[in-house]
Amino acid sequence: MRLGDADCSCGARIVGEPLPESPFKVQRLGPAMTAVALTITSAAACRITLWMALGAIPATWFAWRAFRLAKRDPEGYGGRRVSAYTLAILLVAGSSLGIFEISRIPRYIEKRNIVPTMSTQAAILHSAGFLEEYKRLNGSYPNDSETLNKAAGEAPPLDYWQRPIKYVSYGEFAAMYSSFPTDTPGHIDVGAPIHDVPSVEDAPGIEFHNFELRSAGPDGIFGTADDIVMRDGVFCTNPGVLKRPLDRPLEKASPRR
């Protein structure tokens, strides 16, 4: 209809003035409720893993947006106080969690450094278990790694760095300890294949004279401080043991002078 016409060519007619706008406005609570819902969801997901706390980032944005909308248009948007409280909770909780995670960085680094050692020790323990089973069936430990691998029917175990774990049998050397000449009775010559066995003058200790399982460690070089060594089922941390050559030939042993 053209403006000012009282009727239309189709037959429609104006019967009254247009209805006035409603004096009541319904405030929109969607943005505020969305922020609250995201906050609750993120808090519940943190029980699974703290990484789910990253969900607080969009929740913070929605809470800030809801607060701005309610402040700019209070008649059209409600939940200003709710969004303000939600935003404050998110900021405080996020800051506290961030400080907590920063304080745990040294622990994360320590755990990361422990993983290679623990993985290698697990492989060594697997080999040690097979050695004990071999001794139970045959009465003694294998003389060399070839015998061990042949009996196991598998390749030598690998350490964390995918390098073979070396096996050395000291059974034949143990019987020869008394033949090494020394100046002091009861002492073992430092040139002997295993020179860290306690003497009669030392405090009681553990004698290792059966076998050794050794990983070269991160540097891949045997006889350095980062080697991972097991002797007779016991992991050794003595620097003198770790830095000892893997398999010093018996003929190179010389008496102490």
Structural write-up:
There is one protein chain. By secondary structure, this protein is an alpha+beta fold. The chain folds into two domains: 30-103; 113-252, Glycoprotein, Type 4 Pilin (2-Layer Sandwich). The protein has helices spanning 30-45, 56-72, 80-103, 105-138, 145-152, 171-174, 239-242, and strands spanning 166-169, 211-215, 228-231, 234-236. α1 (30-45) packs parallel to α3 (80-103). The longest helix has 34 residues, at 105-138. It is rod-shaped and about 115 Å long.
The helix content, as a percent range, equals: 40-55%
Q: What is the domain total for the residues? A: 2
Indicate the structural class: alpha+beta
Residue stretches low in confidence (pLDDT < 50, at least 5 long) are 174-205, 248-257
Q: Can you tell me the CATH class of the largest domain?
A: Alpha Beta
CATH topology of the largest domain: Glycoprotein, Type 4 Pilin
Task: Give the topology string: H per helix, E per strand.
Answer: HHHHHEHEEEH
Properties at a glance:
single chain; 257 residues; alpha+beta; Glycoprotein, Type 4 Pilin; 4-stranded antiparallel beta sheet; 7 helices; disordered C terminus
In short:
With 257 residues, this protein is an alpha+beta fold.
Topology (SSEs and partners):
Layout: H1 30-45, H2 56-72, H3 80-103, H4 105-138, H5 145-152, E1 166-169, H6 171-174, E2 211-215, E3 228-231, E4 234-236, H7 239-242
Antiparallel strand pairs: 1-2, 2-3, 3-4
Helix pairs in contact: 1-2, 1-3, 2-3
